[in-house]
Amino acid sequence: MIKIDKKPNILVIGDLMIDHYLWGSCDRISPEAPVQVVNVKKESSTLGGAGNVINNLVSLGSMVEVISVIGDDSVADELKNLLEKIDVKIDNLVVENSRKTSKKSRLMASNQQVLRYDVESIEDINEKSSQKIIANLEKNIKNYSAIILSDYKKGVLTPSLTQDIIKIANKNSVKVLADPKGKDFSKYKGAYTLTPNKKEAIEATNIDIKDEKSLVLALKKLKEECSLGVSLITLSEQGIAIFDENLFTSPTVAREVFDVTGAGDTVIASITFALSCGLDIKKALYFANLAAGVVVGKIGSATASLDEIYEYESSLHKSSSSSHIKTFDEIEKLSSKFRNQGKTVVFTNGCFDILHVGHVKYLQEAKSYGDVLILGLNADSSVKKLKGETRPINTQDDRAYILASLESVDYVVIFEEETPYELIKLIKPDVLVKGGDYEGKEVVGQDIAKELKLVQFVDGKSTTNTIKRIENAKCNN
């Protein structure tokens, strides 16, 4: 996995709406009509439509701006408040007084949707609104890493406006990615790529996608007719297929699927984010599949953070050992996240110069005391002070990489100091683990950790003994 440390500024243009939920229970039928009576106990509202794409981008760490058209109503005020809560500017929202801002209300009884009712305008926006959108785009186009067109067929992305947006973006070398709607994709012509699912692609191309041959034909047709940089089709559990010069399929990595709501928004958001951070299209697809794997494991329209994606990839045993080696800043953020999740964090430290069975059993027992084991590793300079000038035998980078490869070790952090006290202050572990030889002694960091555990060493197993045996073998030869 390529580590992402950028914060691109991505523009989302499309149909904003509010997803409104009324939550309750039902235990009787109305005497007035054969319908359920739902006793509503709470209600909630979230950003929907293009707003869900925005939520996904914000969760990934991107800066986000939005252009859309809303009405002059209470729903618009609610929508603006939700955007401001996630630090998304509302300066480029165009108001049409006669327009109703989209709000979809769902009545939920015992987590089952009983009814949905929509209040919205779905006619095309007027020419004046289109001109304002173009003026805003031309004024700020240089600020954007990429543009997402989130089309829900609510009237914002008219054919002429969509074409104008793509032409302006292409003129300024800004990639446009669109989540298309309808059977006619011609209005997205010139975009970098589209993200239709299999059903949408079949309807748009009139090609029945049933095997690799028909998939390639559909991808080629989309690329040629829409003048795309890369042709793409999402294939649900089969992953994502693209056609550039050749067919390439990035397989799904979802382990458990609880809900696919909003997964399409996650895919386009994560592909755009990854491309904006410098990843090529194939790596961007892999990243998007990881993000989708996180999201479908949650209930409802969900998002995925970078930490969740990295953790998910690690859980699939597809991450490199180096991704488990963290800096002080990184481990502080991770530790805070684990505490918020209610996970038990375990910390231990040592030199671990020549890894042996005693080390492995010690670390396995340490991990058994909690959910996450963080290992503080003495840097080479620190080892020399503790063990003498001839040590360590293995460099800190080699030692860290080997330790990070162990199943029992979740993260390794190298520290330069003689003791790991500053590191322990950052991590604030629940459990501090040290060797049995510390019985009755003061242990560094025990004033910070909630609990101290002492683990007995395996008799006769130590780095010092290993070195002696090597030296004796040399002498005997």
TrEMBL record:
This protein's pathway: Nucleotide-sugar biosynthesis; ADP-L-glycero-beta-D-manno-heptose biosynthesis; ADP-L-glycero-beta-D-manno-heptose from D-glycero-beta-D-manno-heptose 7-phosphate: step 3/4; Nucleotide-sugar biosynthesis; ADP-L-glycero-beta-D-manno-heptose biosynthesis; ADP-L-glycero-beta-D-manno-heptose from D-glycero-beta-D-manno-heptose 7-phosphate: step 1/4
EC number: 2.7.1.167, 2.7.7.70
Domain Cytidyltransferase-like: 347-460
Gene Ontology MF terms: ATP binding; heptose 7-phosphate kinase activity; heptose-1-phosphate adenylyltransferase activity; phosphotransferase activity, alcohol group as acceptor
Catalytic activity: D-glycero-beta-D-manno-heptose 1-phosphate + ATP + H(+) = ADP-D-glycero-beta-D-manno-heptose + diphosphate; D-glycero-beta-D-manno-heptose 7-phosphate + ATP = D-glycero-beta-D-manno-heptose 1,7-bisphosphate + ADP + H(+)
InterPro entries, A to Z: Bifunc_HldE, Cyt_trans-like, PfkB_dom, RfaE_dom_I, RfaE_dom_II, Ribokinase-like, Rossmann-like_a/b/a_fold
Residues binding ATP, per UniProt: 197-200
Keywords, sorted A to Z: ATP-binding, Carbohydrate metabolism, Kinase, Multifunctional enzyme, Nucleotide-binding, Nucleotidyltransferase, Transferase
Region feature (Cytidylyltransferase): 347-477
Top class in the EC scheme: transferase
One Pfam family hit: CTP_transf_like
Superkingdom of source: Bacteria
Active-site residues from the entry: 265
Region (Ribokinase) location: 1-319
Entry function: Catalyzes the ADP transfer from ATP to D-glycero-beta-D-manno-heptose 1-phosphate, yielding ADP-D-glycero-beta-D-manno-heptose.
HAMAP family, per database record: HldE
Subunit structure: Homodimer.
Protein name: Bifunctional protein HldE
Organism: Aliarcobacter trophiarum LMG 25534
